[in-house]
Design goal:
Elements lengths: L23 H6 L21 E7 L5 E7 L14 H18 L8 E6 L21 E5 L7 H4 L7 E5 L7 H13 L6 E7 L3 H11 L11 H25 L9 H26 L6 E7 L6 E2 L22 H12 L2 H7 L4
The structure holds zinc ion.
The site of zinc ion has 8 residues, from helix 5.
Length: about 350
């Protein structure tokens, strides 16, 4: 990746998508998008459509457009899923579109249009009313800056209720936020998602503490950091047990064992959190779905980390229901740790 820029533009009465490419000399000098953010309109120009355009230039020859577009004739942006499975499918399809659009192996320019209803931002309403909040899914995700929740699911505003915290751990405030969403939007909210991601800094911290217990002394008095790491250590331990069971006690002494342990712990931590949330909400909201997944920073797929980035299979893509019991967690841990990805990181023959 040798250059990258973003543009956010807002055009009243846009007959069609407009894009402006910056030449390379401008990019090299550093482009200031400030002027582009000013909407252009004249006295007679009524606001009839709104486009928010994000342009990413990721290499000399490869471009793609991710476009948020309001089309009053397109009712898709107002459609609410009727079940948690339908909501889950919407997110999985959105992530598939995002991953395919940003696939660096493709030569042609890619474009994705995300239906976007600016009325969710108050556009078009009078001064008396704010738009109703109508998310169809709540997402508990990591605060990592590389994982923009709405973007990776190709969703617009007022579709997702997003709670982000390092390590996507379930502290009281996060649980309270999700309780608020589930309790206040029962007509529209069908699904709760726990979204982990590869190479998570918070999980890395927990893995390092697990492998080198002496490091725990460094955070002994840092209760805020400890409150995150402590919640992840159970998943790290479960992953370590599975690795040792499958590949021997020496496996965690290998040079890349930390990376392997991290991959497994990330997804087990998400599955564990999803399990807790399902327990939390099942009695009061039996129709609510709870799923988990891990966002891969390389393929930009939400998936289980079973295979290396170049060999991702269909079965590992998507969002998944958490296990029901201890045996289910053991099977999941063994499946992840017996996958090609973890084995390749451990240097174990396939
Ligand atoms: Zn993270």
């Amino acid at each position: 990746m040798n250059c990258q820029f973003y543009q956010f533009r807002w055009w009243p009465r846009t007959p069609k998508l407009q894009t402006i490419w910056l030449n390379r000399s401008v990019q090299r000098e550093g482009h200031n998008c400030e002027n582009n953010l000013k909407p252009k309109r004249d006295a007679s120009d009524e606001l009839t459509s709104l486009s928010l355009c994000v342009e990413l230039r990721i290499c000399e020859d490869r471009m793609f457009d991710l476009i948020y577009r309001f089309d009053p004739t397109n009712t898709e942006s107002q459609r609410t899923p009727q079940s948690w499975k339908e909501a889950c499918d919407l997110l999985v399809r959105g992530n598939r579109d995002f991953a395919e659009m940003t696939d660096g192996r493709k030569k042609e320019r890619e474009m994705r249009v995300i239906p976007f209803d600016p009325r969710a931002l108050g556009w078009g309403s009078d001064t008396h009313g704010a738009p109703a909040q109508v998310p169809f899914a709540a997402v508990l995700g990591c605060a990592d800056a590389r994982v923009p929740t709405e973007m990776i699911f190709a969703k617009g505003c007022n579709e997702l209720f997003v709670v982000r915290v390092a390590g996507n751990v379930l502290g009281r405030e996060c649980l309270g936020s999700l309780r608020y969403a589930v309790g206040h939007f029962p007509k529209t909210l069908k699904l709760v998602v726990v979204l982990a991601h590869a190479r998570c800094g918070a999980v890395t911290e927990a893995v390092e503490v697990y492998l080198q217990p002496g490091r725990y002394l460094e955070i002994a008095t840092d209760h805020s950091i400890r409150s995150i790491a402590d919640q992840i250590l159970v998943a790290v331990r479960a992953a370590a047990i599975a690795i040792e069971l499958l590949h021997g006690h020496e496996a965690l002494s290998q040079p890349n064992s930390q990376a392997a342990l991290l991959e497994a712990a990330v997804v087990l931590n998400a599955a564990w959190t999803a399990y807790c949330l399902r327990k939390e909400f099942h009695e009061g909201f039996p129709e609510l779905g709870v799923v988990y997944g891990a966002y891969d920073l390389v393929t930009r797929r939400v998936r289980l980390p079973l295979s290396p980035a170049t060999e991702v299979t269909e079965e590992e893509k998507g969002l998944f229901e958490p296990p029901d019991d201890v045996e289910g967690f053991q099977q999941l841990a063994l499946r992840i740790c017996n996958g090609k990805l973890v084995k390749s990181l451990l240097g174990v023959s396939q």
